[in-house]
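Cross-posting from the chemistry board since nobody answered there.

I work mostly on the small-molecule side, so proteins are not my area. We synthesized adenosine-5'-triphosphate and want a rough idea of how it might sit in this target. Sequence and SMILES are below. Is it possible to get a predicted 3D structure of the two together?
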Amino acid sequence: MAYDLQLTNVYKTYDNGTPAVIDFNLDVEKGEFIAFLGPSGCGKSTTLRMISGFETITSGDLMIRGKRVNDQLPEKRPTSMIFQNYALFPHMNVRQNVLFGLEVKNMPRDQANRKVDEILEKLGLSAIANMPTARLSGGQRQRIALARSLVVEPDILLLDEPLGALDANLRKSIQNELKLLQRDLGITFVFVTHAQSEALALSDRIVVMNAGRIEQISPPRELYTRPCSQFVARFIGSNTILPGTVVGQEDGNVILQTAFGHLTGANRAGVDVHAGREMSIILPAEAVDLVPADVPEDEMRANFGSNAISCTIEKLQIVGHIMHMIVRFADGNQINVEGHVDKYRDRLKAGSRAFVAWNPSNATVIDN
Ligand SMILES: Nc1ncnc2c1ncn2[C@@H]1O[C@H](COP(=O)(O)OP(=O)(O)OP(=O)(O)O)[C@@H](O)[C@H]1O
């Protein structure tokens, strides 16, 4: 399989000794939308800059379309980069900003003008083509930066927090535009963000990084429902983490002895789950079923096995079609649960007792 982009055993240690990226491995197919997600300082921008050529690689291989490009200059690589501050030229108008990249490449004037017209049209910028960029709004500046990167027809577009400077509403609408544009063009996008909602909304796969290392590479939904490390379980979505000790396996599910008795979850990671191993059940908020305390025990058992933890409903709040609930376990810990109003409205009351229950296949057992 020929990949658009491959990083194999890539390391980056800065001259001052900071190990910023450690053994990074990723294969990206043409047309994929990849997000690098993680807390500040985890190595996202360093990795992006190594792909663009603005940062050197300490060791490992960087391949673009099957060719090793470790030592190729940025302007020779088939990549384009958009920075958070857009780096537009304030003394040039919109058209001149977009034209600049083609002038650097010495493209004949007629051909360059045609390409600029096309991309300005595509991004809805034709009407403001002759305006100086300094006077434009954040959204317009963002679009100009996009036009300037795309006009050179890169194989891979690299975006470093490109929506970070925009307010929440504009961010949402530009997110949608960006996704549509990426589908339309079929170009590979690699996008750096520390906003999980953005990564979940936009990407085909998310690379979660922590302290220079990759924690998990998964499509958004899988990351949300099947985190495979403690870091990811805490960083993404809303998970309840129930630590315990393995006592055995049953029907592909792992049984843990926990503070709430025997509880079960799926062994998705395929790890060796010998008795005595310290592990945790990761229970995503959307996998939780809140069951009134008066449901007969045999019905509970048939639906959830031993997966029922007694709790008190502290608070109910309806927002649109969703009921948000806060429940408290006997050990004092609180968790958030949410579900469709129709399911819960007539069954649960604030202050009453209930069970937090789940089907074991919707929870995952991972190492502590
Ligand atoms: N030029 C540099 N020289 C030395 N250390 C650096 C340099 N640039 C980044 N670092 C360090 O490398 C590590 C990774 O930084 P990087 O900017 O890649 O993280 P990041 O995930 O993009 O963070 P942020 O979201 O804050 O931009 C950090 O410890 C950072 O302090």
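Reply from a structural biologist on the board:
Welcome over. Reading the output above for you: Residues 239-367 form a domain with the OB fold (Dihydrolipoamide Acetyltransferase, E2P) fold (CATH 2.40.50.100). The first strand starts at residue 5 and ends at 13. Happy to explain the token format if needed.
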